[in-house]
Each structure stands twice: as structure tokens, then as C-alpha cells.
TrEMBL record:
It is found in: Membrane. Signal peptide: none annotated. It holds the Pfam family DoxX_2. InterPro entries: DoxX. It comes from Allomuricauda ruestringensis (strain DSM 13258 / CIP 107369 / LMG 19739 / B1) (Muricauda ruestringensis). The chain crosses the membrane at residues 45-63, 70-93, 99-117. Its main location: membrane. It is a multi-pass membrane protein. Keywords: Membrane, Transmembrane, Transmembrane helix. This is DoxX family protein. GO terms for cellular component: membrane.
Length: 127
């Protein structure tokens, strides 16, 4: 395995794990998750729908042929999360020390890099 393929694999695993680990909180209606989506006016359907979309996104990121699509979805989802933190929620949500905000940024950056790395697989960019 080359250094580039190892780095790409790590870049795929990081956002997928972050997206997958938050599913428990969304699908179990954890108080923090319910608070966030109530504050955004999207509880419960936004929480559940976003959870399903994040599950699909994580799977797409992990499959090498669809990494580009999952990463694009990840950019959109995390862009929305980051905007929500800045505009409505604040960086710190329920005394989390900014953890959710940081995880959103980590996922966003990994997805941006993955889109760039997998640009040759993206049919939207092929001529």
C-alpha cells in the first residue's frame, strides 16, 4: 500500500466514523440531539431524515467508487451544520465545549479533500 492510498483510506474513515457515531444520538432521540433539532425547528423529522442521509453518506464515502458522491453530500451536510452553529446554535451546544462544531469542521475538511482526491471519478467533472 502506498502512502497516498493509506492517507486516502484514513481520510475516508475519519468522516465516515464521525457520521456513523452520531447516528446513535439521532436515532435514539438523545436529549442533546432533540435539543439541537428543536432549536432549529426540525424535530423530529429533520433529526431522523438527516440521520438517514448521514448513514447513506458514510456508506458512500467508504465505497471507493462512490467516495466522491459521499464526500459531496458530506460537504453539504456539514456546511449546513457549520452554518447552523454560527447562525443559531452557537459554537458550544449544551456545554459540549464545541465538540460538535469541531467534528463538523473535521468532517467538512476531510470531505473537501476527498472530493479533490476523487475528482477523476466524478462524472460531473469528466469531459
Amino acid at each position: 500500500m502506498t502512502a497516498k492510498s493509506i492517507a486516502t483510506t484514513i481520510l475516508r474513515i475519519i468522516p465516515a466514523v464521525i457520521l456513523l457515531q452520531t447516528l446513535f444520538y439521532k436515532f435514539s432521540a438523545a436529549p442533546e440531539s432533540v435539543y439541537i433539532f428543536e432549536t432549529l425547528g426540525l424535530e423530529p423529522w429533520g433529526r431522523i431524515g438527516l440521520g438517514v442521509l448521514e448513514l447513506i453518506t458514510a456508506i458512500l464515502i467508504l465505497v471507493p467508487k462512490t467516495t466522491w458522491l459521499g464526500a459531496l453530500l458530506g460537504i453539504g451536510i456539514m456546511g449546513g451544520a457549520i452554518f447552523s452553529h454560527f447562525a443559531i446554535l452557537g459554537v458550544v451546544v449544551q456545554n459540549d465545549g464545541g465538540t460538535l462544531f469541531l467534528l463538523a469542521w473535521i468532517t467538512f475538511v476531510c470531505c473537501v479533500v476527498l472530493v479533490w482526491i476523487s475528482r477523476h471519478q466524478n462524472p460531473l467533472l469528466k469531459k
